[in-house]
Amino acid sequence: MPAEFTRSKWFTRLEWISFAHSCIYLSLLVCAFVAGQPQPETFILGLTHGLLWIFMSLACLVAVRLRIVPLRLAVAVAVLGGIGPFFGSYEFVREQRRTRLLADDDNALRTTHGLKKAR
């Protein structure tokens, strides 16, 4: 199995966990400020958000070390994720778009110069 496939797979997993974290956080905000702080729902959502933030922070720091995600993305998750995990989700989408654009540009450049397609 190629290393790039593994990196892509782990990036996608972290991205989806980040989206789930953002949904849980949004549910926490709604529960706490709109629904009148019903218990134990608010406690469970708050605890889940806190544990996911810790997990995502550690996972992203390891992912930076393994060159799966860039440092900017890991900082968004670890530093801003406690306040609002939407920053991390945004950075995942931004990085995915940036990587896709670079790959498209590289393939276009190779095609223009008659080189073999990158794999």
Please specify the SSE layout and strand pairing.
Layout lengths: L2 H31 L7 H25 L5 H10 L5 H27 L7
Helix pairs in contact: 1-2, 1-4, 2-3, 3-4
Would you report the number of β strands? 0
Q: Could you give the order of the helices and strands?
A: HHHH
Mean of residue pLDDT values: 89
SSE-based structural type: mainly alpha
For the record, the count of structural domains works out to: 1
Low-pLDDT stretches are none
Biggest sheet, in brief?
none
Helix content: over 70%
Report the portion of residues in β strands: under 5%
Overall geometric form: elongated
What is the number of helical segments per DSSP (H or I, 4+ residues)?
Answer: 4
Q: What would you report as the Rg, rounded to the nearest angstrom?
A: 18 Å
Termini separation: 13 Å
Model description:
The chain is mainly α and 119 residues long. The chain has one domain. Helices cover 78% and strands 0% of the residues. It is built from 4 helices and no strands. It has helices at residues 3-33, 41-65, 71-80, 86-112.
List the defining traits of the structure above:
119 residues; 0% strand; elongated
